[in-house]
Specification:
126 residues, alpha+beta, Arc Repressor Mutant, subunit A, two-stranded antiparallel sheet, 4 strands, elongated
Length: 126
């Protein structure tokens, strides 16, 4: 038995693996050409569910959001999280995480009190 058929057999009941294993092998072989793709296989009623994921895509979206926030703060200094949330259409929780990362990277600082203050780009980054 081909080792990849053994993988397929481990997730499918009884003889059902015979119906799907050749396709499973072809998928795995084809994916060797795409190292940035991974996939998971789950048994569902009457078949299998294959989920493909592209490595790095989640971080790209987050990084794009952080860069966008940084540029917005650079152009509009002194804004608070509620204002940024409305203007950028991003949740306050997400902005808090992004701002924490920007503060940790010493790219932005919060000036002033909690109520009256706002976010500014640091001097070395302006």
């Amino acid at each position: 038995m081909h080792p990849q058929q053994a993988d397929c057999r481990s997730i499918l009941p009884d003889q059902q693996h015979r119906k799907y294993s050749s396709g499973y092998i072809r998928i795995r072989k084809e994916l060797e050409s795409y190292p940035e793709l991974t996939f998971t296989v789950e048994e569902t009623s009457g078949g299998v569910l294959v989920t493909f994921k592209q490595a790095g895509r989640v971080n790209e979206g987050i990084n794009e959001g952080i860069v966008g926030l940084y540029n917005y703060v650079k152009q509009h200094p002194g804004l608070k999280i509620p204002e940024l949330s409305k203007l950028l259409n991003v949740s306050s929780k997400t902005l808090e995480r992004w701002l924490k990362q920007l503060k940790d990277d010493k790219k932005v600082i919060h000036r002033g009190s909690r109520k009256a203050g706002g976010y500014h780009v640091t001097e070395e980054n302006s």
